[in-house]
Design brief:
The chain has seven helices and twelve strands. With 379 residues, it is an alpha+beta fold. It has two domains: 222 residues, Porin; 148 residues, OmpA-like domain (60s Ribosomal Protein L30, Chain: A), CATH 3.30.1330.60.
Amino acid sequence: MKRIFLLFILTITFAFSGLTSAQTSKYEWLPQDSWSFGFGGIYPRYANSTLSVVEGLPNIGGYISFQRNFSEHIGLRLKVNYINMQGHVGGPAGITIKNEIFGGDFDLIYYFVPSEPISPYFGFGAGGFTHNISNSPNLSLNGNQADYQANLIFGAEWTIATDWKIKTEFAYHNTASTGFDGLFGTSGNSGGIFSGNSDSYMTFDLGLLYYFDKGPVSKLNDLYTGIKNDIDYDRIESMIKKYSTEPTTVDYNRIEDIVKKYQSHGTTESWYLVGVNFDFNKSKLRAESMPILYNAAEILLSHPDLNVEIQGYTDNIGSEKYNKKLSQKRAIAVRDYLIAKGVAASRLTAVGYGEANPVMDNRTASGRAFNRRIEFRVR
């Protein structure tokens, strides 16, 4: 029975591993919080017991569960299960003790990588149950008994559809008493998680989870993928066309006129370099930024009295401290390029402002792309 069950788990695991790997982008939506309902089968096994487990005996069970995920990482689960376990006293030819268990557990679950199509988790909790023992040589243990247990859990959820996941789980259960298996005493000096001589058993679950209610979209996927798969190039092009003097090009002469105008009056003006933007979490200049920076260098070289503060910015993903450092690196990268083109270093100051003063909405991928920018402030 054990071999058949494990073979079934492995078959399902490999089959859906290929499915989820191929369809990651389709199911990458992750909520900040959610509710789910689960059901499936259980293969139980005594772990610390004087009983002999004999292959072929009907050790089997089933469960239903309700789970509330309070965040992308943390969830609380109520699980109700029925288990039928059997074992022998005195070897395969001895007495068969039957144990029918009905109970419930409250478990706290932690997901390590919730954005992945295969999401492993760890959990712990406690529960109570009643079990009906029959055919025990210890007559006082026959009949219904009440008990409680501690649980240690390891598992994974495998995404197969937008709202459906396969659940595979291994759990170790440490009961409070030493008569759980229908016999007093255990096979060793330790009874499991909490030592002592209490009984313990293992369960292997295979089932389905249905997420029937989901909260707002999480931002964790942005940390995993940046904007590589979310860039709306058509929208970027339309925005540049909208705010440019000419339909398809940036009017650098217009920029130069603005610089001359405000320099002559001794005032200051921000000069936003349209097109000088950065990849997510990067400070390396992109190829499309070079013509714009080359033009900016020519303007500065033709106005030797013009001093500029190079201002670097980021989107709002990440901590404020980290974004300050990243924006400083971006400003320094532009300064180094201008120096390499002949602009005196004494005329240039590089300053990082982090995620301050966004020019677009950080809630969209295209907005964040525009906010990873460079501005010149004429001094």
